Amino acid sequence: MPLPFLAWAAIAAVGAVGGTKTVKAIKDNSRASYYSERAGEIISSASEKADECRKSANESIESLGRVKLETVDRTIGSFLKTFGKIKNVNFSEVDTVSEFKNLNLDSANIAELSKMTVIASDVLKGSVSGVLSGAAAAYGAYGAVGWFASAGTGTAISGLSGAAATNATLAWLGGGTLAAGGGGIAAGTMVLGGIVAAPALLILGCVMGARASKNLEEAKSNFAKANDYAEQMKLLCSTCNKISEHADFMRKAITVSAKVCDRGVLNLEKTIDEYGTEWNSFPSDAKNKVAALGAAVKLLKTLLDKKILTESGKPSDESDPERIKQEHPDLIAIS
After folding, report:
1. Which of 249, 250, 269, 315 is the most exposed place for a label (fewest CB within 10 A)?
2. What is the mean pLDDT of residues 63-84?
């Protein structure tokens, strides 16, 4: 009888080991499932938050661009029309002109302002179908220097929306809605604030595809990748929020500056009605006011020219609210 007894004992031992392994396998599978599901949740949540930040930044940039376009068309346009009536203007003889330092208008400034009004007017009137949104985004993001340079003489504006979309950052901020933006995103090009998030879609596919995986180590690896992705998206959101902050501040600064110019233009119209259009017929106090208006318009142009984004997609230092306040103390009140 000893042999049968030993056989049963052996079978029992094997069964015990097998049972232990089965229990462990079940536990591992359960843990793998947990890590895989959590990884998917982390990816989805991080992506949703990043998309919200992206949309907010894009809206801020486009809103700024629209305000810029309207300001150039209305305020700058009114100034040029009224100021252009005055003959033989000579700011050098105005004593208070020194107070305005580098804010004195010259013929080059006037020519550039005139060019800006032509383009802004065409875009706002919709003379080029479908260009407004892209043009506003481009102007808001890059300022006049980059945007109007691509616009040429004022007639070659058919490529403005495309010009905006060629920047990977702006294309991503626009959600692929711009003419050439979708292709960049489909290719995984998401450059923002120095972050290269091209692997984002790959990570998402890898993690979501492994949600049913029963491999605990693989599930843990995907969980770690999901957390890395979430941290990347947090940094991206921080960058987007900074872009929104800069754009919103610049929009307010331009609005405040434009109101000052609008009042100056109204006063200039009254001066012309009273003294005519010959500069030498203006009394000294009237000349001082014209010089002050010229300085205000130059300041407005300076604000319009500032860009929100650098070429690499980082928030530009030149549009930083604190820097603007230091350079132009009169604008502190807008904050």
Report:
1. 269
2. 94
- Tokens representing 175? 């959600």
CA distance 138 to 151: 11
Say how many residues make up the chain: 335
Phi, psi angles (nearest 5°) of residue 10: -65, -45
DSSP letters of 269-299?
HHHHHHH-SBGGGS-HHHHHHHHHHHHHHHH
Rounded CA gap, 226 and 296, in Å? 51
Question: Given the structure tokens 């940039």, which residue do they identify?
Answer: 61
Helix (H) or strand (E) holding 196: strand 195-196
* Domain boundaries defined on the chain: 32-334
Give me 151's structure tokens: 């616009």
Q: Give the contacts of 94 (CB within 8 A, at least 6 positions apart).
A: 284, 287, 288, 290, 291
- Residue 40 near residue 207, CB atoms below 8 Å: yes
Closest CA to 293 of 26, 59, 86: 86
Diameter over CA atoms, the chain: 134
**What b/e sequence results for 150-179 when a residue is b if at least 16 CB atoms lie within 10 Å of its CB, and e otherwise?**
bbeebeebebbbbbbbbbbbbbbbbeeebb
pTM of the predicted model over 0.70: yes
pLDDT digits (tens, 9 = 90+) for 136-148: 888 888 876 655 5
Q: What is the pLDDT of residues 85-138, one digit of tens each?
A: 999 988 877 765 555 555 567 788 888 888 888 888 877 876 555 567 777 888
SS3 (DSSP) at 309 = strand
Residue type, 49: K
